[in-house]
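Case study.
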Amino acid sequence: MDVKDRLIAELGSLPAIVNLVDQRKRGYHLEVLLTPKIIRDFSLLMRRLDFYLVFVSAVHLDPEVEIIYQFANYHGPCRTLARAFVPADGIIPTISDIFHGANWHERETRDMFGVVFSGHPFLLPLLLPEEDADLKPLLKKAAALKSAERIRRIAELATPVAVDNTGKNNPEQN
Amino acid sequence: MEANTGGKHSFVLNMGPQHPSTHGVLRVILEMDGEHILEPEPVIGYAHRIQEKMGESRSWPGFLPNTGRLDYLSALIYNHGYVALIERMTGTEVPLRAEYIRVITSELNRISSHLLWLGAFLLDLGAFTPIMYAFDDREQILDILEDITGARLTYCYFRVGGVFRDVDDKFVERTRAFIKRLRGRFKPIYSDLVTTNIIFIKRVKDIVNITPEMARRYGVTGPPLRSTGVCYDIRRNEPYSIYPELDFEIPVGTSGDCLETYLVRVNEMEQSLRIIEQALDRLPSGPFRLKVPRKLKLPQGDASFSVETARGELTYYMVSDGSDVPYRLKIRVPSFSNLSMLKELCRNMLLSDLIMALGTLDLVIPEIDR
Amino acid sequence: MGEEEKSRLNIHSYAALARERIESGNALTAGPDDAQPFIRMELTDKFFNLCRANSLWPMTFGTACCAIEMMALAMARFDMSRYGFEVFRPSPRQADLMIVAGTVNRKMAPAVITLYEQMAAPRYVIAMGNCAISGGPFAVEENYNVVEGVDLLIPVDVYVPGCPPRPEGLLEGILKLQEKITGNRYPFPQYNPPKE
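After joint prediction, the assembly is written out as follows.
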């Protein structure tokens, strides 16, 4: 069973939405839509399956900022993009104790977007000078801010194998 | 090796943003105990140049010059990633001749980046001769590329739909002559003078110990990863352009120390020469650029594109809202993840070995800070 | 750039203060940069200037891409040691020329000023590359971090434009600096300038 199939099988245990996308058109193989509660479980799963963290970043969208994680694997082509919307208080759990590389990525995301990662050991400015710690330069002004529908693909160019596990394992969400 | 005073009298030493190695403006705060480093803490941000913000504030062609300034030593590969991303999003075809030209120039750029790395690495060791030879070879490459691209260092040669200017027979001749020349210089200069030099080996062997597990935790890619034995190269694992049709090996080390990384890079130069030779043999005729409309709107949605630069895996991730100005451009650079490993990699190390470790990781600070 | 954005780049302008002092003719309240020797003799002045110009010791201050062209200038093809300044000193105490090669941003600005003040007079600064002259490609409306020109921080003697300038361009800049110091374009007598 190759890496991608194994990942899809294991993701069945998490209440997440998994989309298989066309790698030639999107550049990654799988898209996973998460909620902040299951980010850490998802990261533990990725670590168990030997993935490495490509980046952690964010996109400023209309109601909340959206955090993006991209993972890839050394042994088989399975680039995975995971997204989660930051809740209203702007705090999201950290994954820097699971993937140590996320330490710096999360510091940079805090610099640029103001997202606070709870549990991060050292959330101080990484790229900006200390007096600019609250500058948050990549947040968009109100005129340029768009909502999530305006930036998602209109025609679904992906092969429509969408696996929706949000109903399973999470009776609160029903 | 135990620390000198058993950690009782530790002090903090600042290896400041201005220091005489050519990596750029990196600051490392060292907690020292005598000559041993207890823990290094890299501080970056001294070369932060608003690249991602600029990517979101101008239409997508306006960002092309910036891609050359991100990592100026392998600027063509950064160009490649960006234009290929736009091509992926818009579905633009690239003529075959342009793909071959892209690969030939990218590999020449990779060789010139490795040559500069080699010279600077050995300069940090104290060897002043190899950098002269390395720069001499590098100037040959720069001459070849200057004729077609017009620039020596920060190229902006690729366009969506092809390349900016065609190559002629003179380029092919000069490149073949260069390949022959460099192959002839590998043994007497880089091998006999450096690789088999006992002083060099003693300075460099068993200095750092990158394990595949540590590399995976930090997201390390490129030669530091390949020196541990993991054969991961974007050109092989997620091939792009015409790399699937070319026959080359991925050099892999065994133990993940400085010497192995050095050997991986030198062998990569040889493999790049092989790639260039094959590509020159097969260079087809045809158009070198397909015109795209100037205000080409990017379709709504997101896409990512990964390429293998001289330092590791570079990933561009773009989110578009349907206009020709990207909504979000995220650039994931290899040196960022490689440097984040430094704190764990260089514990309890001698100060002079830290310089070797920094050289091994092959950092370019302006790309880390973007 | 909006006014509130401009105030973000409000960095202590050393050059402006020094200029004010010189223009107001206040030699008695001269700062350390305006140190004048007690005795000046024209011939020894000329001689010392000749010696200084032919043996400028640059400090390694490469920040970004221009640093590579500065290194290329020091290498075998362009070879700046024929003009006397191949000795790159890492320490500012031992250098008298600071070639600011590359972008300076707000985090780096205090370091630039500190290094400049640590150099011993007479000291010279060359701003190499568009970023050091005026912010270069990063002097855009949405700029929040790049100092638009290193002459907002320290007084600059010679500007070398280019992105990056060719090594010959930087060499021309250093020769211009020699001309500024000695008044003469080819200060070393044994070089025969081309006939006009």
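Observations recorded in class. Confidence is low (pLDDT under 50) at residues 1-12 of chain C. The longest helix of chain C spans residues 167-182. We will return to this complex in the next lecture.
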